[in-house]
């Protein structure tokens, strides 16, 4: 207990001593430091004593002189009242040339004078300390960034007598900051160039962060995701797919992937997601729109099938056609014999079937990949007008009508026979898809530098499940169809280096064939 009382007593004595020292400091012209005797010789880099000059003693002076920071004192006119060794070294100005001079008198660059004048005047006006960062240039080869802190020093009457400035070299910090910003900029550019979406989720499926290049491909607006669960953002089926694959990725420690579809902007988009663990509590999900990729894969599969059928047709077509031609010739010869007159209808039926078989073989041969095309510079409108009477007669026979809407278009390298076959197949399909008293329209026009041929019907549209399969050999909804008509169309279009696009709904279907100039 005695030791405890003695300790408390010592603390009280030390507190009284500290209060006495503080009272002496408050009695000095500036409270920042103790007053020095007027008779004491000047030993620091300060001005000769003035009524508001602060003279430093002992450890405090040693601390300031040996500080790694530049320390300067200014009066209201921006006159140097004090500068420590670091400040003088940085400015490259001798002590005798510095003290008592204003910043403008030292002929420092005007931008520094304006900056510091504004800052110091603000301190005298507001009586509040301030901070700022700036760059100081000594020469073209040597410049650095510094952080400045300005503190007002007061007289006993409360007025500001001077401003004490501490300047710290932050060049290394600034360089690191600039490098970090440059790295962030590069990373941002890199992420912005990626077609993928990046999602950062908890292991339970809650959104923590994300990066989206094209917000239009999101199922829901991107500003409503953070903090929400997958089930709140995606349809139930797709959300459950994600949750299952997240669990699998966490368990296996490997990247897992899923494919799914989402209705976005009235279009069914195919998406691929790759899921990998990020840390023990979260996963990273990379999502890519693969709608176009899947379309290309389907197109490649369809073309492979066309090639296979075409190669088969090229191999056996002529061998089958020759005997069929002979059989048809003899049937036609016998049909004219008087003794065979009673069987003429049978002969006619057999010849029609042979003609139908020959037509199918011709379609097969049209699928051949290496079929020669004779491309000549000509106008698409001319070919349409040439075949229009035949198309018109087919329409009239089925109690339907055909209209032409042809606009001025440039000439193209075309094979007229193949284009006529293309038009005949498309129009016949349109006639088969429409009830009586409906119209077919053939259009030609320019759009985005391409020549467009459009065949539009007023049928009931194509079922969604068949859209992606169109052009596949033997795919047909007709009772007596071969499934080769559209396949031939796709092959003809491919040989002309054009593309087919389809727009279909319950009110009709339009086939767009787009030719590059």
TrEMBL record:
Keyword Membrane: no
InterPro entries per record: HATPase_C_sf (IPR036890), HATPase_dom (IPR003594), His_kinase_dom (IPR005467), HisK_dim/P_dom (IPR003661), HisK_dim/P_sf (IPR036097), PAS (IPR000014), PAS-like_dom_sf (IPR035965), PAS_4 (IPR013656)
Catalytic reactions of this protein: ATP + protein L-histidine = ADP + protein N-phospho-L-histidine
SMART domains: HATPase_c (SM00387), HisKA (SM00388), PAS (SM00091)
CDD domains: HATPase (cd00075), HisKA (cd00082), PAS (cd00130)
Pfam family, one: PAS_4
Gene3D superfamilies in UniProt: 1.10.287.130, Histidine kinase-like ATPase, C-terminal domain, PAS domain
UniProt keyword annotations, A-Z: ATP-binding, Coiled coil, Kinase, Nucleotide-binding, Phosphoprotein, Transferase, Two-component regulatory system
Coiled-coil stretches: 1-28
PROSITE patterns assigned: HIS_KIN (PS50109), PAS (PS50112)
Record's keyword annotation contains NAD: no
Residues of the PAS domain: 56-127
Record domain Histidine kinase: where: 315-517
Domain of life assignment: Bacteria
EC number in record: 2.7.13.3
Name of this protein: histidine kinase
Species annotation: Pelosinus baikalensis
């Amino acid at each position: 207990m005695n030791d405890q009382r003695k300790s408390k007593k010592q603390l009280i004595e030390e507190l009284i001593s500290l209060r006495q020292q503080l009272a002496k400091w408050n009695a000095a012209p500036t409270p920042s430091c103790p007053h020095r005797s007027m008779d004491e010789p000047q030993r620091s880099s300060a001005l000769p004593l003035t009524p508001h000059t602060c003279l430093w003693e002992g450890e405090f002076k040693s601390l300031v002189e040996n500080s790694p920071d530049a320390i300067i004192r200014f009066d209201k006119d921006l006159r140097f009242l004090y500068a420590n060794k670091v400040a003088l070294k940085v400015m490259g100005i001798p002590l005798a040339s510095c003290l008592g001079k204003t910043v403008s008198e030292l002929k420092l660059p005007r931008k520094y004078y304006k900056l510091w004048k504004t800052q110091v005047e603000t301190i005298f006006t507001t009586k509040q300390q301030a901070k700022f960062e700036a760059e100081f240039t000594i020469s073209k080869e040597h410049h650095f960034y510094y952080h400045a802190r300005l503190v007002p020093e007061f007289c006993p009457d409360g007025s500001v007598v001077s401003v004490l400035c501490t300047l710290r070299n932050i060049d290394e910090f600034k360089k690191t900051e600039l490098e970090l910003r440059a790295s962030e900029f590069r990373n941002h550019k890199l992420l912005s160039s990626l077609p993928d979406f990046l999602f950062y989720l908890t292991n339970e499926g809650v959104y923590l962060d994300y990066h989206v290049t094209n917000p239009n491909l999101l199922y829901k607006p991107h500003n409503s995701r953070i903090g929400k669960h997958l089930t709140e953002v995606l349809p139930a089926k797709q959300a459950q797919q994600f949750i299952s694959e997240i669990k699998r990725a966490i368990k296996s420690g490997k990247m897992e992937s899923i494919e799914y579809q989402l209705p976005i902007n009235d279009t069914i988009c195919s998406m691929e997601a790759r899921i990998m663990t990020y840390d023990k509590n979260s996963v990273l999900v990379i999502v890519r729109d693969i709608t176009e990729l899947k379309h290309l894969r389907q197109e490649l599969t369809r073309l492979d099938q066309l090639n296979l059928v075409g190669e088969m047709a090229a191999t056996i077509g002529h061998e089958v056609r020759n005997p069929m031609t002979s059989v048809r010739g003899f049937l036609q010869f016998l049909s004219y014999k008087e003794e065979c007159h009673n069987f003429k209808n049978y002969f006619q039926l057999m010849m029609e079937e042979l003609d139908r078989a020959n037509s199918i073989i011709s379609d097969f041969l049209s699928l051949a990949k290496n079929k020669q095309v004779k491309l000549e510079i000509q106008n698409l409108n001319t070919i349409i007008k040439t075949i229009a009477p035949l198309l018109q007669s087919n329409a009239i026979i089925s109690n339907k009508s055909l209209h032409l809407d042809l606009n001025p278009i440039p000439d193209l390298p075309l094979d007229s026979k193949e284009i006529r076959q293309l038009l005949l197949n498309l129009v016949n399909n349109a006639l088969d898809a429409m009830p009586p008293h409906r119209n077919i329209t053939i259009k030609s026009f320019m759009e985005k530098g391409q020549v467009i041929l459009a065949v539009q019907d007023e049928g009931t549209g194509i079922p969604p499940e068949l859209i992606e399969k169109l052009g596949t050999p033997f795919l047909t909804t007709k009772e007596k169809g071969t499934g080769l008509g559209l396949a031939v169309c796709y092959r003809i279009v491919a040989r002309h280096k054009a593309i087919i696009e389809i727009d279909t709904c319950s009110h009709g279907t339009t086939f767009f064939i787009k030719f590059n100039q």
